[in-house]
């Protein structure tokens, strides 16, 4: 058995042997001569046919071998789709009803979800409308309350001004005179009326979250909280309504502004003088509640506000030269750009006050508390800061030429681009010097010189 016989199965070898025998028979016929009695053309035609058959026979074994690996007609018959035209096969009969059922189920689920969504949407819109109506009603109550309070404060101020005017007209110009019992009694009556009026005018909130705010600002904050709590979508009409309510609220008289009018009234009536009085009782507003008073740009030179209570006061750009503010409470007050030259602020509290670009030339700030105050670009030339607390104060770009810093607390003070040329300090009493380059600042060490001698009176070459 040759190598070719080894590559086929017995059945294949049988087919292959028959094919070889057929091929050999065809070759024998082709090698024989033409049969007598057949013309030449027929013989040539037969010869051509025999040649083609010979060629086909040469390829026959390969074709037979290849046909073994192709599906037979019986296999094709088994896999052929014999479904009659216009009818469904067994697969379609199963999946089509399932598909139709799934589509119906999906539509039902989608309809249910959509219905629930629309119901919830309607409920939410209804609740938002109710919340808006409720917030608008509450806003109206807030504005009404603010209007009533503003009207009451205005009435308090009007009645006060009328009573003080009558007292002055009946008794003439009232001045403090400790030696005259009558004048002293009238003075005390005016002071009592003033203290009561200021107390009734005050509307500063005592709530920690609204510290330093007046009633109008507190009500405005509450109004914004009411609107934000509705969580409703904004509409143009709703926004316009809210803006209108805010404008109405801001139009009410603020207690700080009314207090400012009272102070101006007393100043014009010449009842706030006595700057040089040694008697503390000469100060009509000593201990008076001027919290959040608004005196912006007010021209009040030489006013006596000794020991007045003025936290969060608005005195920016006010003109207060040579005024008496000894012992005044000015915590977190705005004194930016104010004219305070030669003012007396001894023992005053100015913690966290804004004194940006304030004019404090030759001002007296003995033992004043200026901790954390903003004195950026302030003019403190020749100012007396003896024993003053400047802890963590910002003196950037400030002018302290010739200022007296003996005994002052300079811990944490910011001195960027600060001019301290000729400023006096005491090596033993001025605190916080360890963080300051004294040689670069060209300050003067006046250790050994009595503090009773002003720094401005000391010669430049003082050792």
Summarize this, please?
With 463 residues, the chain is mostly helical.
Structure overview:
- Helix content is 46%, strand content 1%.
- With 463 residues, it is mainly α.
- Among the domains are: 3-78; 131-255, no CATH class.
- It has a two-stranded parallel sheet.
- It starts with a helix and ends in an 18-residue tail after the last strand.
Count of beta strands = 2
Structural class: mainly alpha
Shape: flat
Main sheet makeup: 2 strands, parallel
- How many helices? The count is 10
> What is the distance, rounded to the nearest whole angstrom, between the alpha carbons of the first and last residues?
133 Å
Give the DSSP E fraction (strand runs of 2 or more residues).
under 5%
Secondary-structure map with pairings?
Elements: H1 3-6, H2 10-31, H3 40-67, H4 73-79, H5 90-171, H6 181-201, H7 215-230, H8 236-250, H9 255-268, E1 424-425, H10 438-441, E2 444-445
Parallel strand pairs: 1-2
Helix pairs in contact: 2-3, 5-6, 5-7, 5-9, 7-8
Question: Which descriptors apply to this entry?
Answer:
single chain; 463 residues; two-stranded parallel ribbon; 10 helices; 2 strands
């Amino acid at each position: 058995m040759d190598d070719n016989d080894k590559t086929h199965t017995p059945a294949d070898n049988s087919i292959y042997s028959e094919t070889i025998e057929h091929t050999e028979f065809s070759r024998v016929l082709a090698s024989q001569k033409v049969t007598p009695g057949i013309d030449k053309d027929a013989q040539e035609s037969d010869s051509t046919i025999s040649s083609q058959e010979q060629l086909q026979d040469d390829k026959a074994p390969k074709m037979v071998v290849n046909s073994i690996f192709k599906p037979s007609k019986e296999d094709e018959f088994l896999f052929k789709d014999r479904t009659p035209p216009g009818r469904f096969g067994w697969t379609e009969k199963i999946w089509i009803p399932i598909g139709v059922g799934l589509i119906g189920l999906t539509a039902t689920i989608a309809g249910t979800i959509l219905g629930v969504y629309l119901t919830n949407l309607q409920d939410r819109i209804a609740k938002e409308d109710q919340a808006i109506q409720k917030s608008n009603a509450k806003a109206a109550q807030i504005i009404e309350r603010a209007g009533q309070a503003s009207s009451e404060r205005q009435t308090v101020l009007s009645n006060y001004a009328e009573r003080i005017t009558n007292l002055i007209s009946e008794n003439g110009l009232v001045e403090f005179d400790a030696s005259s019992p009558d004048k002293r009694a009238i003075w005390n009556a005016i002071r009592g009326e003033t203290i009561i009026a200021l107390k009734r005018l005050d509307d500063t909130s005592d709530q920690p979250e609204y510290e330093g705010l007046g009633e109008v600002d507190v009500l405005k904050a509450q109004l914004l909280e009411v609107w934000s709590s509705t969580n409703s979508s904004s509409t143009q009409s709703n926004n316009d309504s809210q803006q209108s309510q805010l404008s109405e609220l801001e139009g009410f008289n603020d207690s700080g502004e009314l207090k400012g009018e009272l102070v101006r009234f007393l100043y014009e009536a010449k009842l706030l003088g006595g700057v040089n009085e040694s008697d503390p009782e000469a100060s009509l507003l000593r201990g008076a509640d001027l919290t959040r008073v608004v005196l912006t740009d007010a021209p009040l030179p030489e006013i006596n506000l000794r020991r007045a209570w003025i936290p969060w006061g608005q005195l920016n750009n006010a003109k207060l030269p040579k005024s008496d503010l000894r012992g005044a409470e000015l915590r977190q007050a705005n004194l930016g750009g104010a004219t305070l030259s030669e003012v007396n602020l001894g023992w005053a509290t100015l913690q966290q006050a804004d004194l940006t670009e304030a004019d404090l030339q030759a001002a007296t700030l003995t033992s004043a508390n200026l901790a954390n105050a903003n004195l950026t670009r302030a003019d403190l030339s020749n100012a007396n800061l003896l024993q003053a607390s400047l802890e963590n104060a910002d003196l950037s770009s400030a002018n302290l030429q010739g200022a007296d810093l003996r005994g002052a607390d300079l811990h944490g003070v910011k001195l960027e681009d600060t001019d301290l040329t000729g400023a006096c300090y005491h090596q033993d009493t001025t605190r916080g010097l360890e963080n300051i380059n004294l040689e670069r600042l060209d300050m003067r060490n006046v250790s050994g010189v009595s503090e009773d001698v002003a720094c401005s009176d000391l010669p430049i070459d003082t050792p």
